[in-house]
Amino acid sequence: MSSGTSDHQRRRDMVMTGIGDGVALFASAPETIRTHDSEHPYRQNTDFYYLTGFDEPQSVLILAPSHPEIRSCLFVRRKDKQQEIWNGQRLGLKEAKRLSGVDAAYPIEELDQRIDSFLETGDLLYYAFDADKSLNDQVVARLMRYRRSRARSGRGPRGVLDPGPLVHELRLRKSPADVVGMKRAVDVSAEGHLAAMRYARPGMREYEIEAIVEYVFTSRGAQSPAYPSIVASGANLTTIHYSTNRERVPNGSLVLVDAGAEVDYYCGDLTRTFPISGTFSPEQRAIYEIVLASNLKAIETCKPGKTFNADVNDAAARVLVDGLLHLGLLAGSAQEHLEKETHKRFTIHRIGHWLGMDTHDVGSYRVNGDWRPLEPGMVVTIEPGLYIPAEPDIDERFRGIAVRIEDDVLITPSGHDVLSARLAKSIPDVEEVIAQGRASGSALFA
What we know:
With 446 residues, the protein is of the alpha+beta class. The protein contains 14 helices and 21 strands.
């Protein structure tokens, strides 16, 4: 539960300014069944949490800037002693109101009887028809009734708009409080990766390395991984989103770890690739150095006014293509490969994505059809990669080698701040972290 009431109030105020004479409804995430009668750990809808700091299910936020008395209210579960014995404490109405800073809080059971007093203050309803089917049905029934009666009553919304774009533009630009949360999540993520380098040993299975990473996440206060952790080795290295993590790491293989911690609803997202032997082979080193140069070039390009999916992406791609040509894995003209995208046999994905309270965070990448320029407060991942397929026409020295290096970068007024700068990524630094871990002779779970 968040205690940053003023920040949540500020966000709600900005949304209410954006909707003008409208009314906005936001629903909490539903609880989801895992198997039979056990549930997945509950994770609140991100937009709902962003506006309330409230992380209980069966809740609804209403924003009604034209309401004469109550501009913001929460509908939440009542205190229930019997349910709390089984499932944990509920905050109840009084604490929900105090901690979120809304004008009023009511029992969720009263939503049906109270909702009209809010909806009838607006000409437009801002509502996303998401996973709460019961609320969806309630909203549709109201809209149909208003449609029939509005000519006589003059009350009720005339139409519905998705509030997502409005909220997501706010989330795209991080406030000072958001930046503090992001730095914490990235720091915890980096600690997990450093532990993997220190404590991974030849003969381990991928899931053992995953366990090292996620143990550190949890021990440092993360509520969960931000996404299913990827620990790939051997033939799995060239599968971008491999997350089965069951194989034994082959002798001499690289290990690609793509993992991030979620801490208080902020997400880290980092990738490092390191040799299980402790030392890069010449061929692994050659591929790694190309990807590292691409990573550094992309970060250098990150500054206000540059476009993420054009300037930054293209600068990184050019370095990758030049490197592939130098190694003889491509032939011909770099410009021709870039124009025809033939390099994507080896590069596959673009440079990265927005990062924030979701791993692949919200916010449009284009504005009026053009790639949007970077602005202070945006956080991006920079994650170039090379994935050399194990195919007959490929130089056998490089077959099956894959490297991805991912950092989390905050755009600042003067340029950028690499939030993950403490996490080793040069070849000497990576090998030194591994060597120090092995010299200690200790195991994380000893």
